[in-house]
Amino acid sequence: MIENSAGFIEQRVSEFISRSKELGIKVTPQRVAIYKELASTDQHPSTEIIYNKIRDYYPNISLTTVYRTLETFEKLGLISVVNVLYNAARYDANLDPHHHIVCTQCKKVEDVYDESFTNLDVSEKTLGDYKVEGYSVLLSGVCIDCR
To answer: Are 120 and 135 within 8 A, CB to CB?
Structure first.
C-alpha cells in the first residue's frame, strides 16, 4: 500500500525531479504538479481525473498536455500504466514491485502485493520466441462495495 504522508509524497516528487534531470527532460511546474497529483494517491487515476485536479491551479493547461505528459513519463519509466481492458488507461506512480486487481463493476483499481505473483517463472521456454522483459498480473473481481 502506498503511504500518503506529506513527507513521503515530497520524497517521491524529489526523486522524480532528480530522475527527470538525469533523463534530460525539462522539469516544469506543470509536470511536477501532474506527477505530484499521481504520487499523492493510490487510486490509479485516469488522465481526465488528473486533468480535472490540475486545472484547479493551472487553468490554462489542456487535456492534451496532460495526456502527452503522462505518455512521456511512462515511456521514460517514471510511472506505469495500468491498462484496464476496454477502459481508459489508469496511471500509477508507485514503481515498487506489485500487481493490480480491478473491480469488474465499478472499475476501481487496487494494488496487490503477493510474492507468488512477483516470483512467477516466465522462462523463455514457455513463451516461445519471446524474450520476456517484464510482466504484471491484472486480476479481476467484484470489490466489497459492489458486492
So the answer is: yes
Q: Which of 19, 23, 55, 24 is nearest to 37 (CA)?
A: 55
Kindly give the pairing relationship between strand 109-112 and strand 99-103. Answer: antiparallel
Query: Which residues are CB-contacts of 102 (< 8 A; sequence separation ≥ 6)?
Result: 82, 84, 108, 109, 110, 138, 139, 140, 141
Do residues 52 and 41 touch, judged by C-beta distance below 8 A?
no
Structural domains of the chain in order of their starting residue, each with its CATH number: 6-92 (1.10.10.10), 99-141 (3.30.1490)
- pTM score, two decimals? 0.79
What pLDDT digit, counting tens, does each position of 51-83 carry? 999 999 999 999 999 999 999 999 999 999 987
Tell me whether residue 120 is exposed, middle or buried, using C-beta atoms within 10 angstroms of its C-beta: 0 to 12, 13 to 18, 19 or more: exposed
